[in-house]
Amino acid sequence: MTYEMQDSIVVPSTPDEVYALISDVTRTGEWSQQCLRCEWDSEQRGVGARFTGFNRTPEREWQTTSEVIAATPGEHFALSVGPGRAQWGYRLRPAAGGGTELTEYTLTPLPCS
Predict the structure, then answer these.
(1) For position 113, what pLDDT does the model report?
(2) pLDDT tens-digit profile of 59-70?
(3) Is 3 left (phi over 0), alpha (psi -120 to 50) or beta?
(4) 8 Å CB contact between 82 and 65
(5) Are the CB atoms for 112 and 58 separated by under 8 Å?
(6) Residues 26, 31, 35: CA angle, nearest 5 degrees
(7) pTM for the full predicted model
(8) How many other C-beta atoms are found inside a 10 Å radius of the C-beta of residue 46?
(9) CA-CA distance, 56 to 58, in Å (whole number)?
(10) Rounded Cα–Cα distance for residues 89 and 31 (Å)
(11) b/e per residue 74-108 (b: at least 16 CB within 10 A)
């Protein structure tokens, strides 16, 4: 069983411009409520690249290691946290009337009971 959630917005930029922003994980702290910042673990980029996220809520602070699992410029960027504990991703497509429809989603396996 998997927990799934997604939401979409229209962004007044091209899919390539939006992809360039969301695939630069070092900027994640600019829009995330929990993630303060991310740092690449090596020079590698694209599928297989790993990075560390530094996170904070009022209750605690923690770090995560994530791996890029999808990297299609202008279309799809996704990562696996843990890896394997949860997936977060973004799907992009041109919006009717201009801009980009940006869909953020998460998939988290639920423990069997």
Answers:
(1) 59
(2) 999 999 999 999
(3) beta
(4) yes
(5) no
(6) 60
(7) 0.90
(8) 12
(9) 7
(10) 14
(11) bebbbbbbeeeebbbbbbbeebeeebbbbeeebee
